[in-house]
């Protein structure tokens, strides 16, 4: 598999575009920056607030399966790249075709989601008692067993992500092929984060965070990127003509790094910490919406904004604190974030909820970015690509998959239950369907607002007076118990890492070789 973290061989660089000081260099930087912007705009336009859109339409039973599609696709993406994309076809064309196909798949999702929501609404009406109260537990069970459109919705999301996930590696390959120096990559990659932020802000301005318009926005931006890819410079398959290296494809040599005790501890803790991480990605938008934030998509961009800020500080802290302390700080912030979510729930304390979102920058950068740098230090040059792929496989693949399944109280292969709880902590928010109905009824039809009026509401929290206060109290109590579970998980993993990781290797950002 092509290594997305290292520059390709010099002969693969287009000489007409490699001069960073000339017009060609400026053009390629611009093209690659637009590519990154559109790539993460297309993902951020729907993924961040998917749970809010599904929850609002009474499809909470399918949130876990929808989000678990991402790690499944991440596991299979390296195999696709190693077997096909990196050997037979130009990278920009493969990426273009995948984005076009993925966009077309997403165009079919709104109709399926609408059918699923209609079935859910009909089911809810049939399960109300004489006083009109919905039996939430029976409702969720019925949706899981009988809502065929809801199941199809999950399959379509998986199909889209199977197209999208390989483009993350392809985009890096295209970028590293045509930039003359690796140190130019961060200023290109940062446009991906800006694209994610722009998608969230646009959702907020349009009032679409919890609507099926997120799928239209994702589909259109995916198709736009697919067309744009065919205007990117030619990027030959990096492994064309080379024999199939099964060892590299299956990361055999990288797995040998696990014989190093400290790297083994790091790899295990990295995998485990992604279980509580899944709670943030999978449930934050739904939670913020239920606490009264008008546009959760825009509110969550605070996390990406802080991510950019702390990303710039990583080299400074890395040299002064070292790997262990950086990762400990990152894990500790995850504990604090979930504790803020939990204890901010009963009274919906705005500053606690916003601070929890803002901590995302430290949570992500101090752990993941530091982890990639540590892996780069530990791995011999010949297998650095394998080592980075192994880390992605363990974290974004295995860890996140189990995280999403545990988050939703799901199971493994329909046999092994994954409803991990600590007493009552971690139990599902079963009153959510009833509360969401009450919240929607209290809000009524939203009055049309201008762009600037919508923008001012993006970071505001407003629960309508007509919402059922008893149901609000019950639901927020359940959310408190729910968020304490990932807080406990993160704390236990933090202690495990602090006690068992003692790598004294001198670490610093690796110089270009």
TrEMBL record:
Q: What is this protein called?
A: Nucleoside transporter YegT
Where is the protein localized? Answer: Cell membrane
Organism of origin is Roseimaritima ulvae
Q: Which keywords fit this entry according to its UniProt record?
A: Cell membrane, Membrane, Transmembrane, Transmembrane helix, Transport
Pfam families, per the entry:
Nuc_H_symport
| Classification via Gene3D superfamilies | MFS general substrate transporter like domains (1.20.1250.20)
Enumerate the InterPro entries for this protein.
MFS_trans_sf (IPR036259), Nuc_H_symport (IPR004740)
Predominant location of this chain? Answer: membrane
Q: Which gene encodes it?
A: yegT
Question: What sections of the protein cross the membrane?
Answer: 27-46, 58-85, 97-117, 152-176, 188-208, 214-232, 263-281, 301-318, 325-345, 351-375, 387-407, 482-502
* SUPFAM superfamilies in alphabetical order: MFS general substrate transporter (SSF103473)
Source organism superkingdom = Bacteria
Molecular-function GO terms, alphabetical: cytidine transmembrane transporter activity; uridine transmembrane transporter activity
The UniProt entry's GO CC annotations, sorted and at most eight, read: plasma membrane
Query: How does the record say this protein sits in the membrane?
Result: Multi-pass membrane protein
């Amino acid at each position: 598999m092509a290594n997305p973290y290292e520059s390709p061989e010099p002969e693969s660089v287009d000489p007409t575009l490699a001069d960073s000081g000339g017009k060609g260099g400026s053009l390629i930087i611009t093209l690659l920056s637009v590519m990154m912007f559109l790539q993460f705009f297309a993902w951020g336009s729907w993924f961040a607030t998917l749970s809010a859109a599904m929850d609002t339409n009474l499809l909470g039973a399918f949130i876990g399966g929808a989000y678990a599609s991402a790690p499944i696709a991440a596991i299979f993406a390296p195999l696709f790249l190693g077997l096909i994309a990196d050997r037979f076809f130009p990278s920009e064309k493969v990426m273009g075709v995948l984005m076009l196909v993925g966009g077309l798949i997403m165009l079919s999702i709104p109709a399926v989601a609408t059918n699923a929501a209609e079935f859910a609404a009909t089911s809810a009406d049939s399960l109300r008692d004489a006083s009109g109260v919905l039996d939430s537990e029976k409702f969720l069970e019925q949706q899981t067993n009988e809502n065929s459109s809801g199941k199809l919705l999950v399959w379509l999301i998986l199909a889209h992500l199977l197209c999208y996930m390989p483009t993350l590696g392809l985009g890096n390959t295209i970028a590293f092929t045509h930039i003359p120096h690796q140190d130019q990559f961060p200023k290109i990659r940062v446009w991906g984060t800006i694209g994610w932020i722009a998608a969230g802000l646009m959702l907020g301005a349009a009032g679409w965070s919890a609507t099926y318009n997120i799928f239209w926005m994702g589909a259109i931006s995916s198709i736009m990127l697919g067309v744009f890819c065919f205007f990117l410079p030619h990027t030959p398959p990096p492994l064309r003509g080379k024999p199939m290296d099964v060892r590299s494809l299956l990361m055999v040599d990288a797995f040998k790094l696990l014989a190093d005790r400290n790297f083994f501890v790091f790899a295990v803790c990295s995998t485990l910490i992604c279980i509580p991480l899944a709670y943030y990605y999978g449930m934050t938008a739904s939670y913020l919406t239920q606490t009264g934030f008008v546009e959760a998509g825009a509110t969550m961009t605070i996390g990406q904004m802080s991510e950019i800020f702390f990303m710039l500080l990583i080299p400074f802290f890395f040299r002064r604190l070292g790997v262990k302390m950086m990762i400990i700080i990152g894990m500790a912030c995850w504990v604090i974030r979930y504790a803020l979510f939990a204890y901010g729930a009963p009274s919906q304390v705005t500053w606690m909820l916003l601070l929890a979102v803002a901590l995302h920058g430290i949570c992500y950068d101090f752990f993941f970015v530091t982890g990639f740098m540590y892996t780069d230090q530990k791995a011999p040059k010949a297998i650095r690509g394998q080592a980075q792929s192994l880390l992605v496989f363990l974290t974004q693949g295995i860890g996140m998959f189990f995280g999403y399944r545990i988050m939703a109280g799901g199971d493994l292969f329909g046999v092994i239950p994954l409803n991990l709880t600590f007493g009552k902590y971690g139990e599902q928010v079963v009153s959510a369907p009833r509360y969401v109905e009450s919240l929607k009824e209290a809000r009524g039809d939203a009055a049309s607002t201008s762009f600037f009026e919508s923008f001012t509401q993006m970071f505001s929290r407003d629960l309508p007076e007509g919402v059922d206060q008893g149901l609000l109290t019950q639901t927020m109590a359940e959310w408190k118990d729910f968020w304490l579970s990932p807080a406990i998980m993160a704390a236990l993993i933090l202690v495990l890492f602090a006690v068992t990781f003692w790598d004294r290797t001198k670490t610093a950002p690796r110089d270009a070789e």
